[in-house]
Each structure stands twice: as C-alpha cells, then as structure tokens.
Amino acid sequence: MKNSDSQNSSSSPFGGWGAYYIVIPAHNEQDLIGLTLQSLVSQTVLPSKIVVVNDNSTDKTEEVVLSFAKDNPYISVVNKTSDAIHMPGSKVIQAFQKGYETLDSDYDIIVKIDGDLIFPPNYFETIINHFQSDPKIGMVGGFCYIEKNGDWILENLTDKDHIRGALKAYRAATYKQIGGLKPAMGWDTVDELLCKYYDWKIVTDESLHVKHLKPTGANYNKTARYKQGEAFYTLGYGFWITAIASAKLAMMKKKPFLFLDYIRGFWKAKKAKTPLLVTPEQAKFIRNYRFQKMKQKLI
Questions:
Q1: Which residues, given as ranges, of the chain have pLDDT below 70?
Q2: At what angle do helices 227-234 and 258-271 cross, to 10 degrees?
Q3: In terms of C-beta density within 10 A (0-12 exposed, 13-18 middle, 19 or more buried), how is residue 219 classed?
Q4: Which of 19, 55, 106, 167 is the most buried (most CB within 10 A)?
Q5: Which residues of 5-16 are buried (b: 16+ CB within 10 A; e: fewer)?
C-alpha cells in the first residue's frame, strides 16, 4: 500500500494517494466488456491496474480485453476454468480472488466491478475524493441504473445506503480488516456489516449514475432460488430478521412468492448446519444492528 505522503502524480492528482486497482470477473461478456473498459480508460483519474478474470467464457471476451490491453498496458487478463452454471456469490468471488492474487499490495483502493457497466468519466475521481475526505470511510459506491423504455432508471433493489455488489470500492485497510470477500451468496452484504462491526463508514453517492447493461440476476440458475434464504442464515440474521428481510426483498422484486423460497432456504441451511460467514460475536452485532435499522424505519 502507498504511504499517504508518497508522490505519484502520474496515477493520482491527490498528492500521491488514491491509486486504485480494479478486478473484473467476466463470463461471456464479449458484447459488453468493451463498453465497460472504454468507460474505465476514459476516467479523469485512471486506474493503476485492471485485471479481467475471464471465467470459463466460450465467446470472445478474452479477445476484446486483449485488444484494450494493447493500448493500455495496465490492463491484463487472467483465464479461469470453473463450472459454467451461474450461481450467485461463490462463482463470482472465486473469480475475483483469482484476479486479486495476481496483484501486488501497492494500492490504496481495491475495486470489484462487473463486466456490464458503463461508468461516468468522473466516477473514480469522485470515489477517491470521498475516501480522502475522511480516513474512517471504508467503502464508497455510486448507483446502478437500468434502461427501461428508453430511459435510465434506478435499479431499485436495495436501500440507498447499500453499495451494490456490481461496483464495490474498498479502502485497502478496510478490505484487509474484514478479511477480503467471502466466496458465498451474501458476500456483498456481509462486507458492509463487517465494516460497521469494525467501525468503518460506508458512503453512497447519488450523483454517480452507472449504467447497468444487464439486470441483476438475469443469468441465475433456477437452483439459486433458495440461496437468498441460505445467505440470510449464514449472515447470522436469525429467523425473524430473515422473515422481514425476505418479505421486503420479495416485494422489491415484485415477486411475492419468492418469500416462501427464501424462508425454505433459511430452514434448509439451518437444518444442514451450514457454517456462518461471521463469528458468533459478529452475528450478535449484526442482529442488533439490523433490529435498530428496522426500528428506525418504523418510527
């Protein structure tokens, strides 16, 4: 990691701090990854490194990335073979980890993004500004927008204080303290809950509109339907918080019957004694935190 007083104006105009590395897990993204990379090489503050993990693609994803790497030497590609079935959570984070392992530790911010996004040119300059504004800020992100009838509208699947899994940026010290990313569904919730546990702040910036070219979950296999309930269990939520969270998520997705799948997934995981993603102490903190948040919304 860079010292905050080191001078590296080539990678950052922020007094040497703000070098960021991006890892992009990508599976059959030949039609979209070029748009993502074009938006990254057009940033007002360029990334120091971009690693695209070509995860078992059967299309020309690798060729598209290599064509960008020719003119942008900070872009590289890593090939990974894995199960072709798109299961939420584990597959994408295993791919992320494969890319992360190729990187050195000379970064201030580590970023995980999807290969189907278009970022505004000032996105990462703004992200760096947020991190610089307060040393206790551990995570920062903008918002995903999807196209509907010719308009780009907010992909409204979560609360405004949650950073979507498609575009996570972590301070290096935060990433290390939370133990990196967990290869399981719920990884993009447990990271934020552990941030809270370790007293880091999370910032979402509503001015940063990112185009999400493929709606979330578009490729999920049917066997993934119980996974959300299992994720709630592994986060240490307990039954009542799971029931409330399941009802809310099913309504947000406008598919009320998903509630039953989520609850079945929870009991399935409990019966199987599936290991939690957190320690008992962290699970207790998480339940208290979720209850407090729910209370605030009712008042």
A1: 1-15, 82-89, 157-158, 216-224, 299
A2: 50
A3: middle
A4: 55
A5: eeebeebbebeb
Is the sign of the CA dihedral 23, 29, 32, 37 positive or negative?
positive
* 117-118 vs 49-55, strand pairing mode: unpaired
Q: How many CB atoms lie within 10 A of CB 148?
A: 10
SS (H, E, C) 203-261: EEEEEEEEEECCCCCCCCCHHHHHHHHHHHHHCCCHHHHHHHHHHHHHHHCCCCCHHHH
Task: Give the model's pLDDT for residue 297.
Answer: 75
Q: Say which residues have a Cβ less than 8 Å from residue 102's Cβ, sequence separation at least 6.
A: 51, 76, 78
Q: What is the DSSP letter of 74?
A: T
- The full length of the chain comes to 299
DSSP state of 275: P
Question: Which structure tokens are listed for 278?
Answer: 């957190």
Q: What are phi and psi of 28, to 5 degrees?
A: 50, 60
Q: Which two tokens stand for residue 224?
A: 């993934």
Cα(62)–Cα(77) distance, rounded to whole angstroms? 7
| Closest C-alpha to 238, from 267, 198, 277 | 267
**214 contacts 115 by C-beta, under 8 angstroms:** no
Give the whole-angstrom CA distance, residue 110 versus residue 100.
Answer: 9
pTM value is: 0.88
CA distance 220 to 205: 28
pLDDT of residue 2: 41
pLDDT tens digits for range 240-299? 999 999 998 888 888 888 899 999 999 999 999 999 999 999 999 999 999 898 888 776
Query: Which H or E run contains 288?
Result: helix 280-298
**Which of 165, 174, 182, 176 is CA-nearest to residue 130?**
174
